[in-house]
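Notes to self after the Tuesday call (sharing in case useful).
The group wants a holo model before anyone commits to mutagenesis around the pocket. I volunteered. Ligand is beta-D-glucopyranose. Logging inputs and output together so the record is complete.
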Amino acid sequence: MTNKQLLDLLHTLNTTEKLAQLTQLNPVCFGGDCITDLTGPDFGLRVSNEASIAIGSVLNCDNASDMIELQKKHLEQDPHHIPLIFMADIIHGFKTIFPIPLAMSCSFSPSNVEEAARIAAHESSVSGIHVTFSPMADLVRDPRWGRVMESCGEDPYLNGVLSAAAVTGYQGEDPSFPYKLASCVKHFAAYGMPEGGREYNTVDLSYGTLRDIYLPAYKAALDAGARLIMSSFNIVDRIPATANKVLMQDILRKEWDFSGVVISDFNSVGELIHHGVAKDGAVAAQKSMEAGIDIEMMSTHYLDHIPSLIEEDKLSIEHLDNAVLNVLNLKNDLGLFENPYKDASTEQEDSIHLSPEHRAKARRIAAESAVLLKNEYILPIDQNKKIGLAGPFACSPHVLGSWSAGSTTGISLYEGLLQSFSPDCICLAATEELGCSLDGISDIPPLNSESLLSLEECETVIVAVGEHQSDTGEGGSKAFLRLSHNQENLIQCLKSMGKKVVTLIFSGRPLEIAPILPYSDALMQAWFLGTESGNALADLLLGKVNPSGRLTMSFPYTTGQIPVYYNRYATGRPATAENAHTRYVSRYLDCPVSPFFSFGYGISYSEFKYTDFSISTTRPLTVSITVHNCSARTGIETVQLYIRHISSSVVRPIKELKGFKRIPLEPDESRTVTFPITREMLTYFGKDSYLFEPGNYELMIGKNAEDTISAIIYIDDTLWAV
Ligand code: BGC
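Result:
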């Protein structure tokens, strides 16, 4: 449709019909089934049974046959034949589940993220979905928050690069093309910073930090073309995001020139009442619409109150019309007026879902997402010896992680190992699955004298421990991050039996693993790797794939150290090696300042040496390092560039990631890696605007945020490429 036709259509709609376009409900609200978890109250919302007509979009309908039926019924009833748009949470795959986003980010590979998103779009588009509520670009620093699993970690730059890659993967060149989705970036803004890591809690941060650290990833996703953005539940500078004009108008619409659709989060319009900034649903509707929320998700304050608000002149019709036009534009951009079913096809669901090609890619990406944290000459394991396998994740197929409603199980570690070992070469013990906290089950059964007898003949035991997948994700905040008592005990017992212990941690967040590290000869962070989890882990354990993941979130020593992240602001009394025994510096008496494992950390079966760090000041300014693989194995190293601005007008982080390169290296191969330094890398949000300040900068290249080589150099505008 042309713009003129869309405007004409808009003007033929009455107020109720307009409001239908701005209302999104789950099928359960109009007589359908609820396949996925509702992540909030449905308030018994029931629009009349023919009612799909009273709404414009559907939340989390997840199969082609229901979608086609709903769309058909709707179009028959709607005198204007405006198609429904189907939106869903396709977070890390649809039927083929990829690693949780936090894990995938550890591959430091935009192409992995893009590929996973492309496949997720393919699989979900044939099931009738048009829009995915992904990527989540929320920056995270607190592993107590359950949704860290859905993020790309603690770094603004990496978060931006990977969020943009996800958008490209979902949308391709154009979301109206076959097998593409429109992407909705979320949760605008700063939802990843709830106080105490407690879900839906207060967010309180400075404007400078919001601008410099928290906003860039949303912006990167929008710059990559994301068609929608979702408001967050939290407050930003004391105004809930859903009613926040500074965010939604001044920054999003005016400064960033965003012309797509803004959708509320699940009942976040209604929650303005709980926040205490709206006395009733009418005020909530008015404030949200005035802020610029186009679609209200899972509540009907727009439907219920906007007609009277307009009648009473409390809200202008322009607000309503602008919002409706945004939605009609999106439907039009997706080609839904011409083809309201888009890619929905039950036949294609059968052939495309979980296809061998998709699974092979998921397996590779999963193997690149796990992070090896310790290896005392024990991995890869010897395939010719019997091996022990213990712990609640040894045989568990529940390895997909939260937000994987399209599938329920994946390949267990045991199944993966059985591809290379005969069953009588794997001795199993203590494999009872772990329950989840909401069911009041927080541990595995205690060990007894019989529990580990079956492992007697094995020299090496793989012990697969962690947290239940539903203890992660939305509503999965936790105050204690240690492994459960009986799991820690299991690891200690194995060590005291003289076993070589390979510990695998299945979790959606950095856990407190300091207590078990001494009892583990090798330790790998296995996250939740999705459908191909067991196969990918077997590939790594057996050395068919050399581990290459690097942490994107710092691991704390203990919860008392949280938040702990690498890019902290410089303090006036920094702790250094020289003042280690001084009291009056910024340190803990009983715990280091640095994390247990830092951002960027991860090892492999190869060893890489860095030499010849150099800076070239002939334009363009560059910094280089030579990396040598001094092992007999081909491996992948992720070379990381960090920068610190040493004398600036406001306090800056002690280092910030500004570039990375993932380089494959053959045995004994050396490569020189060069990073051009650009003005953009050094531009930041100062007191009240974005600026570049000439001055001294420390340029650092390293294996991780703690292990870098550096030099200080004066940089001004004369150094940029001409
Ligand atoms: C979550 C969103 C999600 C929505 C719809 C909310 O509770 O915060 O991320 O997209 O539910 O399922």
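Two things stood out.
The CA atoms of residues 564 and 594 lie 7 Å apart.
The first strand starts at residue 23 and ends at 25.
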